[in-house]
Specification:
elongated; three-stranded antiparallel beta sheet; five-stranded antiparallel beta sheet; alpha+beta; Helix Hairpins; SH3 type barrels
């Protein structure tokens, strides 16, 4: 009995050493992966790469490096990596077949980043709602609405549908309705609205101001003001300040 136990001691010692080494490889590897991902993100940031592309590359790099780390740990424990790779390949094929929709979303995310349909911090309008793009991930894009709700939208649907980007240009056309009573002087009302908007900060002087009757309401004549204003790039414009000035 003693001889049997002693015969296992070298194997147990070897396994213990391999286990400790595997744990060290995993701990150090995780730290190295974090550092490499951070370095890659900083490098892309210095190259002025879009934030969405940086996040996509960082996430992909993290997945690939973690896969290699797992294989290294398995090899250190004494298991055959060839058989593991074969099993992972078969499992990956089964997962791919069952997640075709998700793969379409991944392809949509890549398409969004390549074509720059929109970027992080853009204010977009979609069939699901309007809001500011906070993240473009591998599968989903996250949009924060003005009332602080978060929309998680599949990339595949975004890449194949119409999306309005309200912040990509430096100049926006503002359309506002102002009501005046039926007893008021219509001509003078138009002139006054145009004069007030003309003095608003940020107005594009070379663009013509148009004030016209849009509709007749029950208690007022609704005049529509159409004018252009300069706005900081990639910032949404609601026209609130201009509308307050006109009113």
């Amino acid at each position: 009995m003693t001889e049997t136990i002693q015969s296992f001691i070298p194997d147990l010692q070897a396994f213990a050493i391999n286990l400790i080494a595997a744990i060290l490889i995993y701990v150090v590897g995780r730290r190295v992966i974090t550092i490499l991902c951070r370095m890659a993100d900083r490098f892309l940031e210095r190259k002025n790469v879009d934030a969405g592309v940086r996040g996509f590359v960082k996430e992909t790099l993290k997945i690939v490096l973690n896969l290699f780390l797992i294989l290294a740990v398995i090899a250190q424990l004494g298991f055959s990596t060839a058989s593991i790779v074969t099993i992972l390949g078969a499992a990956g094929l089964a997962i791919v077949m069952s997640l075709q929709g998700s793969l379409a979303n991944v392809a949509g995310g890549i398409l969004i980043l390549i074509t720059k349909q929109f970027r992080v911090d853009d204010f977009i309008s979609t069939a699901y709602g309007d809001g500011k793009v906070t993240e473009i991930g591998l599968v989903y894009t996250k949009v924060t609405t003005p009332d602080n709700r978060v929309l998680t939208i599949p990339n595949g649907e975004l890449s194949n549908s119409a999306v309005t980007d309200a912040t990509v240009n430096d100049m926006r056309r503002l359309d506002m309705e102002i009501g005046i009573s039926y007893e008021s002087d219509l001509t003078r009302g138009k002139e006054l609205i145009a004069e007030i908007f003309q003095d608003c900060p940020g107005r594009v002087e070379e663009k013509e101001i148009d004030v016209h009757v849009s509709r007749l309401a029950d208690s007022a004549v609704m005049l529509e003001l159409c004018g252009d204003a300069e706005v900081p790039r990639r910032q949404v414009v609601y026209g609130g300040e201009h509308q307050t000035s006109v009113r």
